[in-house]
Amino acid sequence: MMDLKNKKIIVTGGAGFLGKYVVKKLNERGCEYIFIPEIEDYDLRELDTIKRMYWNAKADIVIHLAATVGGIGANLDSPGSFFYDNLIMGIQLIEQARLNNIEKFVIIGTICAYPKVLSIPFKEQNLWDGYPDEVNAPYGLAKKMLLVQSDAYRRQYGFNSIFLLPVNLYGPGDNFDSKLSHVVPALIRRFYEARVNNTNDVRVWGTGKATREFLYVEDCAEGIVLATENYNKSDPVNLGTGVETPIKDLVEKIKQLVDFKGNIIWDTLKPDGQPRRCLDTSRAKKEFGFEAKTNLDEGLKKTVDWYINSLK
Asked: How many distinct helices (H) and strands (E) make up the chain?
């Protein structure tokens, strides 16, 4: 087990949704030196900026959370940006970490890297068994190439990097922007605004038949820190709950929590995205003792309550 207490740690994206929870978990472990490269000062797509960050931070460990992310709509609108931003950031950060003798580099991948059609639950060894869903493929493949880099660098240079695959995250502090939010915050906002505006209907993309797995953000942060402390292989590791939820069921849960009394209209001309998602989480438990603690009903209630209180 790596003792993080006296390590200097860079957390890219440390001011973001997941990043704030990871920093909190590090603080709970007594970490005193955490360097967070704010986007206003460090554009991590730029090589000179990355070099300056490493020079300033003098770090031992990097936890790479920074990413260009969004829901189905954002991925459809900006596939080139999603591919370029995520790939160029990761490739250059890892290469410069190697040149700066970083002890450990933690890469956060994405569930979108898995093939579009795959038997449930998704196992890490099946990651290369097909092409990702077309909607998210540029983002998913950009992240997937970092797994290739991680493995190649370990074999050639002995560089210690690990690759984690979290499922859909949600929780208090999520991004509720109407254009960039993922499914849970997008639905919460839509139902809440419909309720306060006395709107009769809420339109939801797709058929509702697709399934997803949802991981409460604080649980994910704990998994990342546990892996940072205990895991030292290039083999990818899933982070999730192992519970598959149809989008239709998710919509009904959020509708009830927000207390929306109107109708749901399914826009079947819009894409569902990947048909099914659910992870095999046994490797995370075996390798570093991670198990999610927050069930979906509990996590959704906390998220809805946070969002409504944030508007007051």
From this structure: 10, 12
Q: What is the rounded distance in angstroms from the CA atom of residue 148 to the CA atom of residue 151? A: 5
Tell me how far apart the alpha carbons of residues 64 and 92 are, in angstroms, rounded to a whole number: 12
When pLDDT is averaged across residues 21-42 and rounded to a whole number, the result is 97
Q: Beta strand 245-246 with 211-212: parallel, antiparallel or unpaired?
A: antiparallel
* pLDDT of 78 above 80: yes
Q: Taking 90 as the threshold, does the pLDDT of residue 186 lie above it? A: yes
DSSP state of 64: E
Tell me what the mean pLDDT of segment 174-186 comes to: 86
Whether 139 is a known active-site residue: answer yes
pLDDT digits (tens, 9 = 90+) for 264-293: 999 999 988 888 899 999 999 999 999 999
Domains in the chain, CATH or no CATH each: 8-170+214-241+278-293 (3.40.50.720)
Among candidate residues 21, 54, 139, 231, the one labeled active-site is 139
Residues sharing a CB contact under 8 Å with residue 119, sequence separation 6 or more, in sequence order: 126
Q: Are the beta carbons of 249 and 185 closer than 8 angstroms?
A: no
